[in-house]
Structure formats: C-alpha cells, structure tokens
Amino acid sequence: MSDVRHVLKESSWATVYTKDAHEFRGTFRASFDEDILGFEDVPEDLKKFFGIEQHSTPKNNAYYTTLHILVPLLTTNRTEKSLTRLMTVVHRFTPDFYQLLRMRDERALLLLAYWLGLMSEVHLWWISNRAQSECFACCRYLDANGDDTIRALLPFPAKQCGYQIGKKEEELESVWASQLANGK
Q1: Residue 135 gets which letter from DSSP?
Q2: Count of CB atoms within 10 A of residue 70's CB?
Q3: What whole-number distance in Å separates Cα of residue 16 and Cα of residue 42?
C-alpha cells in the first residue's frame, strides 16, 4: 500500500476508498488493498496501446492503475456529487506514473488529459476552469507532438476543454481567449 493511501485511510476521505469503492465494485474498483485489477470493460485497443497484457500489474505497467480507474468513470454520470470519485484518480497515481508525466510521456499525458476532461465537467468554481486550462495545455502538447494514435484518442479531452485538434497556434490562442471571456 502506498504512503498516500495509508494516510488517506485515516482521513475523512476514507469512505471514498472503502465504503464507496466497495459499493461501486465492478465499475469503480478503487479499494486500498487491491493489487490485481480486472480489465473486462477496457477496450482491446486501449489495452494494446497502454501495453496491458494478461500478466500486467501495477508493478510492471505504470499506466495500469490510472487506466483501470479512468475507464469506468468515462461511462458514468459526472456531477458535483461524483467529485470524490474523480479525486481518487490522482490519489492512485503511482510514483512511476508521476515520473512519466514529468518526462512528458505522451500516453501518461493522454491519461491526465482524460482525467482533467472529466474534472472539467464538475462545475465547481474552484476546479472546472483550472481543469479546463490544464486539459487544453495537454491537448495542445499532444496534438503538436503526438503521433496519429494519440491524436485519434484526443477527441474526448479536446471536446471537454474546447481544444480544436489540428488548429494553428494563432487560432488556438483566440479560441482559448474567447472561452475564458465566456467563462467556459
């Protein structure tokens, strides 16, 4: 168990990881002590893209846990009430996943963009604008530096933050400025 999960287990967030995780078993699966997670609902192309195989675990695949938690969240109704479930994603980021983010690994940034896209749907003053701007930055970077496979997976986060795939830099600046002015 990671140090963060140990601390959270003793905090007010504990119910998110115990009661809620157990209640949503099969769609959420974020319990503290679960090391081997099922991937029945993850599309085969995503498993292949993220290198998930039959013997993959959080210890041998840095994308494993984040992908496992995100996929079910993409199919659920997201509201202010689901914020706690969305927040658990970041608490399950592993040190290896953080390292990939620091190295600007495109697959890790894509997962981050998906999470930020989900967070931007929770319309709370203190999170939605920041989630949208960070999602926009991830999409911009991935569009400019990613390959065709990455770009094919960008539509969901791009839609969430208003990023327009394939636009020139000058056009993107005006799109983002317009969104900020309109409070989106």
Answers
A1: H
A2: 21
A3: 23
Residue at token pair 């839609």:
159
Q: Where are the alpha helices (DSSP H) in 83-127?
A: 83-91, 95-102, 106-120
The encoded tokens of residue 47 equal 């498993």
- Whether the predicted model's global pTM rises above the 0.85 cut: no
CA 73, CA 79: separation in Å to the nearest integer? 11
Q: Specify the 3-state DSSP secondary structure of 152.
A: helix
Judged against a pLDDT cut of 90, whether residue 77 lies above it is answered with: no
Q: What does the DSSP 8-state code read for residue 137?
A: H
Alpha helices in the chain (DSSP H): 3-9, 14-17, 19-23, 44-49, 64-73, 83-91, 95-102, 106-120, 128-145, 148-152, 155-161, 169-181
Q: How far is CA 37 from CA 1, 32, 41, 66, 73, in A?
A: 14, 12, 11, 11, 15
At 88-140, the pLDDT tens digits run: 888 888 899 999 999 999 999 999 999 999 998 887 778 888 999 999 999 99
| DSSP structure class, residue 106 | H
Max distance between CA atoms of the chain, in angstroms, equals 49
